[in-house]
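Schema walk-through. Below, the input block comes first and the output block second. Nothing else is stored per chain. Lengths vary across the set, and this one has 329 residues.
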Amino acid sequence: MALHKDHEKTGRSMHTFSIVARDAKTGMLGVAVQSHWFSVGADVGWAEAGVGAVATQSFAEPAYGPKGLELIRQGKSASEALGELVSADPGEAMRQVAIVDSHGRVAVHTGKRCVEYAGHKTGNGYSVQANLMLKDTVPSAMAKAFEKSTGALADRLVVALDAAQAVGGDIRGKQSASMLVVKAQESGKPWTDRVIDLRVDDNPEPLRELRRLLNVARSYEHANAGDAAMAKNDFETAKKEYRVAMKLAGDNVEIAFWSALTLASRGRVKTALPIFKKVFLADSNWVQVLKRLPKADMAISNDARGYSLIKRILKETGQNQRALGQNTA
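--- output ---
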């Protein structure tokens, strides 16, 4: 598998620290990274459900990502895939690359021309790697933190990044971060296989922002779980899931609106009313959103029953009742 003949000249300056890992309990695969470079997630992290995860950095060759995953998909191990990529690359001395496959096998390469401090450390189902660091303790700090951490893979990946930053991190400072987590098995629908897909392209505190985004992503997960529970008429579970979703969403009232709408459309209007009231007080534009839904036949029917429900919601939340259109009977 020949790589571009000018790779050594065209490699992007993605000096950074990262982690690739497979969760032993769930089989999920993930990659997370932080760097003092704009939009580090665009090139460094790659992952595919049921296949593996790749981090390509230093003077990065982005092709290592898709090509490495392709080789694993063809039946090669992480080590075999990385060996083939490196042997075909005239710029390998400038590369730092790590791969974990769906079996938890890991392989990593730190080229001899990567800028100090550069190094890596591997463990059971994971690899951490770094270059252009303030101190040479970054990989060991990341490995120790990851091994001691518990919980979901996404949380453990952030813990590893935090540990790197705590001992100095990138000598240049902080700018961007990203995280990609995929399912253990591919479904044939890649867009549904991404569990977490987050990027912080430019921020003075990228890891703090990454954690915030992770909470927002989780809020949508809980909201979806609430919808699924409502579809099964499991009202108590739905209430719990919506409550968690709204808490995680913080000032973002969209989750609250759609949660209330699902409750109201399934006959739980009294439970929905205080949620609607909070949303409308935060942003009155959501009143207009509610009024527009019947014509799209979205949750509220485009008939007298649907418009009667809207009137009740607006009346009992203290909103000004304007004409709702022709179907107001």
